[in-house]
Amino acid sequence: MSEPAVHAFGLRRRFSHPSGDVEVLRGLELSVAAGELVTVSGRSGSGKSALLALLGGFDSPDSGRVLLAGEPIDGAPPWHTCAVLPQALGLAHELTVAENVALPLRLRPGTDSTEERVTGLLADLGVGQLADRYPSEVSFGQQQRVALARAVSGRPKVLLTDEPTAHLDAGSSPAVLRLLRRCADEGAAVIVATHDDAVHAIADRRVRLSDGVLSAA
Ligand SMILES: Nc1ncnc2c1ncn2[C@@H]1O[C@H](COP(=O)(O)OP(=O)(O)O)[C@@H](O)[C@H]1O
Ligand SMILES: [Mg+2]
Question: Which residues form the ABC transporter domain (predicted)?
């Protein structure tokens, strides 16, 4: 059998605060297969974003390991291996919307035509008319869709998204859900931290983060 796309085990992560230490993750385990879409729920502050930071290699666990396709991660992997839609978006503000979305394709050209891929994704997400604007010239909800388009443009094997519908109205979230589902159907392992029942509804599997570990939701 092939390795899961994502396998994390024994993950522990403690943060120090003036008021005392908090152990946010306490021996957490998670396996996600290629083509599987898993949603992670949990109350605010339960550690969902902290978990995604560990899975994406932006942070290191105090103990435990993260394997992507069986390989231990060492820092943040290349974007075509694992791409992230962080809660804080992280768009490059000196680049236009289209240039942001094209970045992964320019870093590692594949079989996609950059222009077709970028134009198609922005249109699918209802922000096609914004291609030549700068992030500061579009709303936060629109920036969130641009950051999602950037995360998926290079067809990453693992896609980590943090509250991808948090800033969207009811009209624009179905397109985001369709794109997340399509990424999984095309073979990515997709992990979505979310409070949104509409996202849980498209999941293959739902887990809940509570007391530092995951359980079936
Ligand atoms: N870099 C950090 N430094 C200190 N504390 C952190 C850091 N990241 C997260 N935390 C703490 O870990 C807990 C979980 O945070 P977070 O992962 O953002 O929760 P969630 O995404 O589920 O709302 C919170 O108590 C938060 O204050
Ligand atoms: Mg969070």
Answer: 6-217
Q: Are 149 and 122 in contact (CB under 8 A)?
A: yes
Average pLDDT over every residue of 124-151: 97
**Distance of alpha carbon 163 from alpha carbon 39, whole angstroms:** 10
Which pLDDT value is given to residue 106?
Answer: 93
| Residues in Cβ contact with 93 at an 8 Å cutoff, skipping those fewer than 6 apart | 134, 135, 136
pLDDT at 200: 97
Mutate to test the pocket of ligand 1, among 22, 24, 44 (most ligand atoms within 8 A of CB): 24
CA of 171 to the centre of ligand 1 (A): 30
Cα–Cα distances (Å) from 153 to 37, 147, 157, 211, in that order, read 18, 10, 11, 35
User: Which residue from 22, 58, 163 has its CB within 8 A of the most atoms of ligand 1, so it is best to mutate?
Assistant: 22
Residue range 8-45, pLDDT digits in tens:
999 999 999 999 999 999 999 999 999 999 999 999 99
Q: Which CATH architecture has domain 6-216?
A: 3-Layer(aba) Sandwich (3.40)
Q: How many CA atoms lie within 13 A of 154 on its CB side?
A: 24
User: What ligand is nearest to the CA atom of residue 24?
Assistant: 1
